[in-house]
Design goal:
Blueprint (H helix, E strand, L loop, with lengths): L7 E3 L7 E2 L11 E4 L1 H12 L4 H8 L3 H21 L2 E4 L4 E3 L29
Parallel strand pairs: 1-5, 3-4
Antiparallel strand pairs: 2-4
């Protein structure tokens, strides 16, 4: 029996979940699906400037797992940009931070305070 996958902690869902070249109505062209946790890894590392260990800690997973998730996300992003494919963000094995009962809901999230937590530093300090 396979071990169940661990839920990945995600701060918030993307405001826009479909990106790509303009097509005629009804013709989306080739579609690439990026999971929500792949999106979160891109957001945390590339936008927020966290390293892999900090990102893994925030998402509640191992550093090696975040490395694999991040690599997969970057490949999908590159394929979308270089080959003009539509990128859609959906699905995955995640829970929003507010759904974790053992944490301080979103108060402990990067959007509201992980940078100021015990093990994190401000990016600009």
């Amino acid at each position: 029996m396979a071990r169940p996958r661990k839920w990945r902690r995600v701060c918030k869902l993307p405001q826009v979940n479909t990106f790509g070249p303009p097509y005629r109505e009804g013709d989306m062209g080739e579609l690439i699906t990026m999971t929500v946790e792949e999106y979160e890894s891109i957001r945390l590392m590339d936008l927020e400037g966290l390293n892999q260990q900090e990102c893994a800690n925030l998402m509640g997973i191992a550093r090696s797992t975040i490395q694999r998730i991040y690599d997969d996300a970057r490949k999908k992003l590159a394929d979308s940009i270089v080959n003009g494919k539509t990128l859609k963000i959906e699905g995955g094995d995640y829970k929003l931070c507010s759904e974790f009962k053992d944490r301080e809901s979103c108060d402990g999230c990067i959007c509201h305070g992980h940078r100021y937590g015990k093990n994190m530093k401000l990016n600009n300090s």
